[in-house]
Amino acid sequence: xxxxxxxxxxxxxxxxxxxxxxxxxxxxxxxxxxxxxxxxxxxxxxxxxxxxxxxxxxxxxxxxxxxxxxxxxxxxxxxxxxxxxxxxxxxxxxxxxxxxxxxxxxxxxxxxxxxxxxxxxxxxxxxxxxxxxxxxxxxxxxxxxxxxxxxxxxxxxxxxxxxxxxxxxxxxxxxxxxxxxxxxxxxxxxxxxxxxxxxxxxxxxxxxxxxxxxxxxxxxxxxxxxxxxxxxxxxxx
Length: 237
Known about the structure:
By secondary structure, the protein is α/β, with parallel strands linked by helices. It folds into two domains: 3-64, Winged helix-like DNA-binding domain superfamily/Winged helix DNA-binding domain (Arc Repressor Mutant, subunit A, Orthogonal Bundle); 77-221, 3-Layer(aba) Sandwich (Rossmann fold). Helices cover 54% and strands 10% of the residues. The protein is built from nine helices and five strands. It has helices at 3-14, 16-21, 24-31, 35-44, 50-76, 89-102, 116-120, 139-150, 188-222; strands at 80-83, 106-109, 128-133, 154-159, 172-175. Helix 6 (89-102) crosses helix 9. The radius of gyration is 23 Å and the shape is globular.
């Protein structure tokens, strides 16, 4: 690694926020290299220019702050709900399955064949709703978000756009990419966001979350929830 590249790498590690926010001339002066060196580095790494390179750091900083904001809402809410419909429902169900071990009050709605609105009627200001909706957006999810917002419920939305529908202003929004090689949108981005939230949530809940997870696993194992193969018969020689 060249001395210039080492200097840039060290600066990025020590000052990731400055690298993403400062203009190129300010950044080059702080590192002690020329602006052209930063441009060449960005291009060598596959970026069109330095602005595109530094934008990746800004995006990472914004995402990190959104994760922190979302976790604060989830942990501080009086009641926490998670919802989605149709194809996205599997994502919300998976998040709830593991998330309830960290947050015992986490509710997956709708629980039955009704509407999520039915179960948000009793929601109070200070509650939190995490919703997943990807184009084409489910009308039920949009209606639920509007209803929850009118009741003063905090909204965390995982969607493929910063703008979902008129009248919906999420407190935290995670825009995700859905491009795919087939007709249907790819859910990998949404699954990644949910996985990151779940991982941090369990870590922050510490020993209580680990204990509850152990209790869940013990209960499932004790009631035969998991299939176990019988030992193969021994063949006498």
